[in-house]
Amino acid sequence: MRPLRLRARVAAAAAVAIVVAVVLLALAVPALLARQLENSLDRTLRSRAVDVARLAASSPDLLTEPGSLEARLSGGALLVQVVDRRGRIVARSSSVGARVIPLEGPGRTALADRRAAYGDASVGGEPVRVYAAPLGELGASAAAGGAVLVAGTTWETQDTLAETRRLVLLAAIVAVALGAALATVLSRRALGPLTRLSTGARAIAHTGDASQRLPAPPARDEVGELAATLNAMLISLERAREAERRFVGDASHELRTPLTALRGNIAYLARHGAGDEVVHELEADAERLSGLLDDLLALAREDAAGPVGREVVDLAEVARSAAAGDAATVVEADPAYVMGERAALERAAGNLIRNARRHGPEGGSISVTVATDGERTALSVADEGPGLSRAEAAHAFERFWRGPSARGGGSGLGLAIVRAIAERHGGTVGVQGSRFTIELPALKDLSSSPRTSPSSKSPTPQEGSSETTTPQRDP
């Protein structure tokens, strides 16, 4: 059996809920109304009985006077009957006529037990509510020691209750119909965006094109948040696929040259035997291939990486760690804190230092400075060389671009890795002459950061990162 659609289930649930509510209302309202009407009638009967009792006590002769026992009740006249202590009728209102209010029930209680009582009876085939109260025993009147019986018809109460039940039933039918219709309309409007999202997701799954986007509903509700979340997931998926395609393209393009040289040297070695020059070239080819693979993997990781880690990093310590072991590198840095990943920032700083060493004059010094200016913290590396021209600076951070003054065979990925790391940390990179600069958002309030120990030693490349000691082959 095919399950009901969500809209049908919502409409059915709404209809059932309304039916249950109306049934409870249909049971409660008539019961409360009947109780209220009965209490009102009882109060009227008792009030009239009290009046008659007072009349019997103060002016017993007036009981038999015409009109003295007459009283009106909403919807009809009250029936009043006075009996003596033996139950014989002494007086009665004209509304009673030839009928008799029976003594059974409250009348007997009033005569025998001398206490007031309520009860239901029938007078001339008409249902009535009866209240009987004992009269005083003093005096010489015929009613002394007797009782007064006051009755009122209950047809009005029954008619009101019947009309109420009909109205509740009609209201239930209308409420169920309207509730189901409104639930259907509202669920269609509410689930319409979900249907469009499902259709769009099905189309994307069919084509496999992560560049497409799901339709975003105009309302900023839960469905809108879901569409935004799914579109953000598609953006991440597209970015990951693009990084994968770029990695495959870069690897296939750049690995061809060193692999060709390596295969040629191996072929020469097979034909002519091992020689110092051939072995040296094989080692150089293997080292170049290893460095290129390391740079490709690092760049691919940066392309596919998510948000940076929540760690407080001191760029001054990053600069000193990157320059360690290079006596010609001078570091001038005061503590400057940023939020990020120390290992990645050390790699970026190390790439800039190796780039400066490769392009600057041989034996020249390299200066590394760290400074904070307002909301930004900058790490700059400069050599003593002339630097890049404006045209060359425009291409400096592109993949596989090599400057004309580079010494040695570089991969052209070192500065591209620097840019990827900086952008993932919410920063920028720039170059002016021979000075390369990374700018990152400064962190001033250390008390609100998740980790407040910027001086903690992060792992070296050999301890916890994927870096190797292979020199970066930058422009």
Task: Spell out the key features of this protein.
single chain; 475 residues; alpha+beta; Beta-Lactamase; Helix Hairpins; Heat Shock Protein 90; 3 domains; 5-stranded antiparallel sheet; 5-stranded mixed sheet; 14 strands; rod-shaped; disordered C terminus
Provide the fold topology:
Elements (H helix, E strand, L loop, with lengths): L5 H53 L13 E2 L2 E2 L1 E5 L5 E4 L13 H7 L4 E7 L2 E9 L12 E7 L1 H53 L14 H33 L1 H17 L3 H29 L6 E4 H9 L5 E5 L3 E4 L1 H18 L6 E8 L2 E7 L7 H4 L20 H11 L3 E5 L2 E7 L19 H4 L11
Parallel strand pairs: 9-11
Antiparallel strand pairs: 1-2, 3-4, 3-7, 5-6, 6-7, 8-10, 11-12, 12-14, 13-14
How would you describe the overall organization of this protein?
With 475 residues, the protein is of the alpha+beta class. The chain has three domains: 6-160, Beta-Lactamase (2-Layer Sandwich), CATH 3.30.450; 209-304, Helix Hairpins (Orthogonal Bundle), CATH 1.10.287; 307-464, 2-Layer Sandwich (Heat Shock Protein 90). 50% of the residues lie in helices and 16% in strands. It is built from eleven helices and 14 strands. It has helices spanning 6-58, 106-112, 155-207, 222-254, 256-272, 276-304, 315-323, 342-359, 390-393, 414-424, 461-464; strands at residues 72-73, 76-77, 79-83, 89-92, 117-123, 126-134, 147-153, 311-314, 329-333, 337-340, 366-373, 376-382, 428-432, 435-441. A five-stranded antiparallel sheet has the order 4-3-7-6-5. A five-stranded mixed sheet has the order 9-11-12-14-13. Strand 13 and strand 14 (435-441) form a beta hairpin. 30% of the residues are buried. Residues 451-475 have low confidence and may be disordered.
